[in-house]
């Protein structure tokens, strides 16, 4: 079965990425894997308790799951810990043999670095196809 990885942070632009993944999943009969990456500061061990971040992850994943369920599609959710969001997304994509990553991007004020760190890293290192869904200004 095909797997579409959708990172979410619970924002409106993440929500758009989930919507796009649902439309693609309906065509391809793919499973949607919703991923929330907790970025753990380098000063802490990766397994350090981060209660607030865990709660945020739970809320964001629940919201995203509701969107997928409205489309009557199967979804799995995972919380991934990493030093940087892109690394967590890439690790999840590799571990679950993803065919596609769909990343919703917000409108960025800074034109010089329009994609941001995460999108930039995904462009260079993703193990599969990547689709960016960017909201207009």
* Spatial strand order of the main sheet: 3-2-1-4-5
By DSSP, the count of extended strands is 5
Order of helices and strands: EHEHEHEHE
Main pleated-sheet profile: 5 strands, parallel
Whole-angstrom Rg: 14 Å
Would you tell me the overall average pLDDT? 91
Which segments are poorly predicted (pLDDT under 50) over 5 or more consecutive residues? none
Question: What is the overall shape?
Answer: globular
* Count of helix runs: 4
Helical percentage: 40-55%
Helix vs. strand class: alpha/beta
Report the β-strand fraction as a percent range. Answer: 15-25%
**Kindly, what is the distance between the CA atoms of the first and last residues, rounded to a whole number of angstroms?**
36 Å
Keywords:
137 residues; alpha/beta; globular
Word description of this protein:
- Helix 1 crosses helix 2 (51-70).
- Strand 2 (31-39), helix 2 and strand 3 (75-82) form a beta-alpha-beta unit.
- The chain is globular, with a radius of gyration of 14 Å.
- It has four helices and five strands; from the N terminus they run E-H-E-H-E-H-E-H-E.
- The protein has helices spanning 12-28, 51-70, 85-95, 116-125; strands at 3-7, 31-39, 75-82, 100-105, 129-134.
- The chain has a five-stranded parallel beta sheet, with helices on both faces.
- It has 137 residues and is an alpha/beta fold.
Summarize the structure in short.
By secondary structure, the chain is α/β, with parallel strands linked by helices. The protein has 4 helices and 5 strands; from the N terminus they run βαβαβαβαβ.
């Amino acid at each position: 079965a095909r797997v579409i990885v959708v990172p979410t942070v619970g924002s409106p632009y993440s929500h758009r990425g989930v919507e796009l993944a649902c439309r693609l999943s309906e065509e391809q009969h793919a499973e949607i894997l919703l991923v929330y990456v907790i970025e753990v500061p380098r000063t802490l061990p990766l397994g350090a308790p981060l209660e607030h971040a865990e709660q945020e992850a739970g809320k964001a994943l629940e919201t995203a799951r509701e969107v997928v369920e409205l489309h009557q599609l199967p979804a799995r959710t995972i919380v991934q810990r990493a030093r940087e969001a892109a690394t967590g997304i890439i690790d999840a994509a590799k571990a679950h043999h993803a065919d596609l990553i769909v990343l919703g991007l917000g409108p960025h004020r800074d034109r010089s670095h329009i994609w941001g760190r995460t999108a930039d890293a995904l462009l260079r290192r993703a193990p599969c196809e990547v689709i960016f869904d960017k909201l207009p200004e």
